[in-house]
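Provenance

Sequences were taken from public entries as deposited. Structures were produced by running a predictor on each sequence independently, with no templates supplied. The record for C-type cytochrome from Denitratimonas tolerans is shown for reference.
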Amino acid sequence: MKIACLFTALALMALTAPAAAMPDLDDDAMAERLAACAACHGARGEGVPGSEYYPHLAGKPAGYLFAQMQGFRDGRRHYPQMIYLMRNWDDAWLARIASFFAAQPMVALQHAAPAAQSDADRARAERLVHEGDPARDLPPCASCHGPQLQGREPGVPALAGLPTDYLIAQLGGWMTGSRHSIAPDCMAQVVSRLDPTEVRRVATFVAGLIPEPETTALEASAEPLPLDCGGATHFDPARGVQP
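Predicted structure for C-type cytochrome:
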């Protein structure tokens, strides 16, 4: 599956170009222009049924999507296919791509079935997701990502229903230092307080949560997040790229 995605992306690179080279595009034209993304993420970011790894993009905040694409381009994230695609794209085109996928409806798509989880492990994971662990200064996932893990504008992603392997890989990336966000990197702080068993428990639990129809990311709030997160406010469509 990963090899097929790479070949598809390479074959369709001719469909992409910097934003300055293109006129305004409607949704259908954008979907065609972004055909290189479809093999892994779905034509409109809805994901690929049965995928064991690739995340859905539809409905995630534009700021988050922008920051991740910029991260692949600028060296904060490391995945060959994405690095190859992003390497020549400017911020204006990344912002247009991010806004396109953010405007698509969040879908209740089940990826590969999550692994079976005992009642005890599920309860432990659910407690970390919704209550955190004050003894370790560990905030609940829901305090940033929303009560349904639906994300928060402008830059906190939805997590519900992402593939287990993808979630483990991303949390593991922060744990090993191979993934970085814009400083201050709050996720690096969070993951440093978890052990590998907890990472797997939480990932398995979150992968089994399917967004309700018409779920959208929470609106931006003036209330501070429990930790300082540089990536959470790096790009706001209303204000553009922030320093």
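Residues 62-74 form the longest helix (13 residues).
The chain has two domains: 2-102, 119-241.
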